[in-house]
Amino acid sequence: MINKLKQCRICGNSKLTRFLPLGKIPLPNGFLKSADLKKDEPKYPLNVGICTSCGLVQLMEIVSPEIMFRNYVYIPSTSKTRMNNFAQIASTVRERFSVGPESLVIDIGSNDGSLLSYFKGYGIKTLGIDPATNLAKIAELKGIETINDFVSVELAKKIRRSKGPAKIITATNVVAHINDLHHLFTAVEIMLKDDGVFICEFPYLRDLIENNQFDTIYHEHLSYFSIKPLQVLITQEGLEFLDVERTPIDGGSLRVYLCKKQKSSKASPKINNLIKEEEEIGLYSTQTLHSFASRVRNLRTKLRAKLKSLKKKNQIIAAYGAAAKGNILLNYCEIGTSLIDFAVDSTPYKQGLFMPGSHIRIYPEAEILKRMPDYTLILAWNFAKEIMDKEKKYAAKGGKFIIPVPEVTIV
């Protein structure tokens, strides 16, 4: 169920230095029914370390993916911001790489088929791969062919034989979830055409550290990528950088374009520039990492103090967005029903359930205007603008928002 990491998942180095212990926390997507509240709730260690050789930041313990991903509750189609990002990816990729009706696009970790639906809308052949049975069924209902399984070398060979090679392979917010990165990249290399492109998007370690985004650290996210260790990985796997973009999604992400190794490199100079910047700001230094850990502890102290102060004044406080990051924040900061009265979320699957660890009940978003809490803590802070735009009536009636990251701020 839990395995201790003995060596770096990229370079195999056994010297891993822990710098951020977040304690034992329930799985952030382990939502509870009322009958579950009296049962013992499993908690798993959440400790973050860095490889002293290649610089990969990674979790020190690994929870079985069968526990985390077979029934998954996050659906991207409930977020306008996420869907706009998908639409932009599909449009850009189609134009830049001349992807036509004869091309095949494969999405790894395809969820409910949201990204592929945009490619399909252009008349392009699509195929999804996702281990979550509930989400694969939703995608199939949308007409998105989906293989309900974990990506593997064996599966890649079957797909290559039955579908042919893919012009484009995408993996948005997925690569960080996979323990055996070499196995993943071997599978990608098998499925990809010789002139194909592998596009992966993931939260950028630099943004995570600079903006105190500790709540994006959770059991599903095994790795926290930056360019330097990623270069080590792809070099080992016969791939190379084509291009990289910094995007605002999820508080700051990298969108990386990879291709099979060419005789003459086509890599954008942005790659080396980013690596140089990472070194210049001391991204991998002990001082930087311990400073980050200190800021995280201070944020916890300030947030708890602010909420306690408001509750002493008999203020009603809601939480907005029962996101995984929100559950990490609540559990690490030891915030429960004594400080938060209720939570709301747009995902139908979560409504009526209770948040793991904190046991705060989740309602539909309409509950905000119905109950008019004095303050609303935006747990899904990466969608804060979208949420505040949606809840203008609440703000007009005097409701205030608390944004916890990067600093505790009241709007």
Describe the structure.
The chain has 411 residues and is of the alpha/beta class. The protein has a domain at 312-410: Rossmann fold, CATH 3.40.50. Helices cover 34% and strands 23% of the residues. The chain has 14 helices and 19 strands. It has helices spanning 65-69, 80-96, 114-121, 133-141, 153-163, 181-191, 205-210, 227-236, 270-280, 286-312, 324-332, 367-371, 384-390, 392-396, and strands spanning 2-4, 16-25, 44-51, 57-59, 61-63, 104-108, 125-129, 146-147, 166-172, 192-203, 223-224, 239-247, 253-260, 317-320, 342-344, 362-363, 375-378, 400-403, 409-410. Strands 8-7-6-9-10-13-12 form a seven-stranded mixed beta sheet, sandwiched between helices. A six-stranded mixed beta sheet has the order 16-15-14-17-18-19. The longest helix has 27 residues, at 286-312. It starts with a strand and ends with a strand.
Radius of gyration equals 21 Å
Q: Could you say which structural class the secondary elements and strand pairing correspond to? A: alpha/beta
The spatial strand order of the largest sheet comes to 8-7-6-9-10-13-12
- Multimeric status of the protein: single chain
For this structure, the CATH topology of the domain at 312-410 is Rossmann fold
Topology, number of strands: 19
End-to-end gap: 42 Å
Main beta sheet, described? 7 strands, mixed
Topology:
Blueprint: E1 2-4, E2 16-25, E3 44-51, E4 57-59, E5 61-63, H1 65-69, H2 80-96, E6 104-108, H3 114-121, E7 125-129, H4 133-141, E8 146-147, H5 153-163, E9 166-172, H6 181-191, E10 192-203, H7 205-210, E11 223-224, H8 227-236, E12 239-247, E13 253-260, H9 270-280, H10 286-312, E14 317-320, H11 324-332, E15 342-344, E16 362-363, H12 367-371, E17 375-378, H13 384-390, H14 392-396, E18 400-403, E19 409-410
